């Protein structure tokens, strides 16, 4: 049986910056699931530029499908728009609860460490890193409380992006195809764990 797999969130969830559609998180994770004997149909409901406040509309569209598994990648635009972490985290928690109530397993990838983005001035990086960590932690707590699986990639994969400019696309903000490979590889274990949890339930 094919698993309905919805991807919600922002431009990273959408795949902006990837050279080919097969390089996106959605495509790479679908391929990973298939390689583990789990056929999945991925549908992307993510919209570039989205903040956590935009998740409710995406959840509504996705729930009409409906998904058995959902991945949410969100937080970067909350950071750039200075949304208070408790506000963004609460909006994420609401989205997770709605998806769980609809019967979906949910994986959340909290805010990335934006201090590694090439155009961030060196003197600003400590402050940006601290802000990223605050939002990441608030999102992780809210997601777990609402019943989601948390993929700890936002801060832990940052070192790779800091070392290798090739992981960024030409705009020096979004991941390149190589960057999406790194992100998908970090997400894959949590996504497979969520599928296993659904099978057990």
Describe the 3D structure.
The chain is built from eight helices and five strands; from the N terminus they run βααβαβααβαβαα. With 201 residues, it is an alpha/beta fold. The chain has a five-stranded parallel sheet, with helices on both faces. The longest helix is centred in the C-terminal third of the chain and has 24 residues, at 177-200. The two termini are 16 Å apart.
Number of helices: 8
State the shape. globular
Strand content: 5-15%
CATH architecture: 3-Layer(aba) Sandwich
Largest sheet at a glance?
5 strands, parallel
CATH topology: the name is Rossmann fold
Q: Which radius of gyration do the C-alpha atoms yield? A: 16 Å
Number of strands: 5
Helix content: 40-55%
Oligomer: single chain
Mean pLDDT: 93
How many structural units, i.e. domains? 1
- Give me the strand/helix succession: EHHEHEHHEHEHH
Question: Can you give keywords for this protein?
Answer:
single chain; 201 residues; Rossmann fold; 8 helices; globular; Ester_Hydrolysis_Enzymes; Lysophospholipase L1-like esterase; phosphatidylcholine lysophospholipase activity; SGNH_hydro
């Amino acid at each position: 049986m094919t698993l309905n797999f919805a991807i919600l969130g922002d431009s990273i969830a959408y795949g902006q910056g990837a050279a080919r559609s097969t390089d996106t998180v959605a495509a790479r994770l679908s391929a990973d699931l298939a390689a583990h004997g789990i056929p999945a149909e991925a549908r992307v409901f993510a919209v570039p530029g989205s903040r956590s406040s935009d998740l409710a509309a995406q959840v509504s569209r996705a729930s009409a499908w409906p998904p058995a598994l959902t991945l949410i990648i969100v937080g970067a635009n909350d950071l750039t728009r200075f949304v208070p972490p408790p506000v963004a985290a609460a909006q994420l928690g609401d989205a997770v609860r709605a998806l769980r109530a609809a019967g979906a397993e949910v994986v959340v990838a909290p805010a990335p460490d934006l201090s590694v983005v090439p155009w961030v001035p060196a003197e600003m990086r400590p402050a940006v890193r601290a802000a990223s960590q605050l939002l990441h932690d608030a999102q992780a707590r809210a997601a777990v409380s609402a019943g989601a699986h948390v993929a700890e990639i936002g801060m832990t994969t940052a070192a790779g992006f800091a070392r290798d400019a090739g992981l960024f696309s030409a705009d020096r903000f979004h991941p390149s195809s190589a960057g999406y490979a790194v992100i998908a590889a970090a997400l894959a274990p949590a996504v497979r764990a969520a599928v296993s949890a659904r099978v057990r339930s």
